[in-house]
Amino acid sequence: ARRARTSASESFHARKHDAHRRSTRANHRAAARARACDSSRIKDRTMSDGAIMDKIAAIELEISRTQVNKATSSHIGSLRARLCKLQRELVELAGPKGGPKGEGFDVTKTGDCRVGLVGFPSVGKSTLLTKLTGVFSEAAAYEFTTLTCVPGVIKYRGARIQLLDLPGIIEGAKDNKGRGRQVISTARTCDVIIIVLDALKPFTHRKLIEHELEGVGIRLNKKPPAITFNRKEKGGIAFTPNPNGETTFLDEETVKSICAEYKIHNADVKLFADCTDEELIDVIEGNRIYTPAVYAVNKMDSVSLEELQLMDDMKHYVMTSSEKEWNLDGLLEKVWEYLDLIRVYTMPRGTQPNFDEPIILHKKNCTVEDFCNKLHKTIIRTFKHALVWGTSVKHRPQRVGKEHVLEDEDVVQIQKTHGT
Question: Residue 232: pLDDT above 50?
């Protein structure tokens, strides 16, 4: 009986060992297959990125070689639509799997608005942030000193403006060189972009930065195109030219060729201005951001007086020197103008107006109802009327409703319904 129990125990342990060995071998084979699949996916993805880049380069070359006239406008419009599609595919490929995210890039939005500093390395962005906000951002004589997004807050005219010092971008940032897409994607969330330029080569830097930002759908100092585009189930492409003047850039054939690239065969396209084929493509894509931009030409102490006067007369330009703190007030004034904000003061019943903490509203949304919602979402439920002092009314005070449009530095007193 003892020998039988011993042999049974040995047989059980032998079976258990064999099962463990088979399980280990199966796990090793599964891990090897997973590694092979991952390497294959990475290889396919690299090959697909390279193929898309080759196609983009070929299309850009063909566009540059094609003469622009009425006979070739349809072909050029089709090429530009194809180019935008390839650029979007490239962004989508590198979107969720585009490498590790850097610390500080996902900064929580605080304050009343957000302003971002964008520029090439070593142009003075970190020094500018330190001088304006008091937040230390490392600055040195070598490039790529700032590797993460450093936030700071400016208190200007009662508003809290969040200022972001973004890492320097390089040529090819829209293709994710130097983690460029991560920097540019943060810039898309800004209300105003300050493009910091070196005074020794401002126009070269401006052209390169604008090219990189436009490659990911950021349009600087532009308004949305005056085009209405509506898809429909049948009826073909119905094109309506500009009724307010000439239509020189788009015709029915060009519109149809652009829509054909997006496999759109039934749609209504109406123009209300003399728009280009690129603006029509932006409307079809639907993911463009129209952001005001200020060009801060830094290191103004390193150029001549004639060059300063030339650049100072140009639109959107501000001459500064962050190291010597020259014209920083002029830069803040320009940023405030481009933010398009107004200040509204509160005055509770029986007290004086509170001029220390204004309510900041955007000029596009500055009604009394927007003012109430900025204070608290429940105020509008018990709203009766408002008393307003300021330039937006004829009498002081004047009783207004919730649709009244407020202006800068108005004083508002909310009157609630009885019993609330």
Answer: yes
What are residue 227's phi and psi, to 5 degrees?
Answer: -135, 135
pLDDT surpasses 60 at 400: yes
Q: What is the pLDDT of residue 307?
A: 81
Per-residue pLDDT of 290-314, as tens digits, reads 999 999 998 888 888 888 888 777 8
From residue 385, how far is each of 370, 397, 413 by CA, in Å? 14, 12, 9
- Please tell me the pTM assigned to this model: 0.77
For residues 181 and 216, is the Cβ–Cβ distance under 8 A?
A: yes
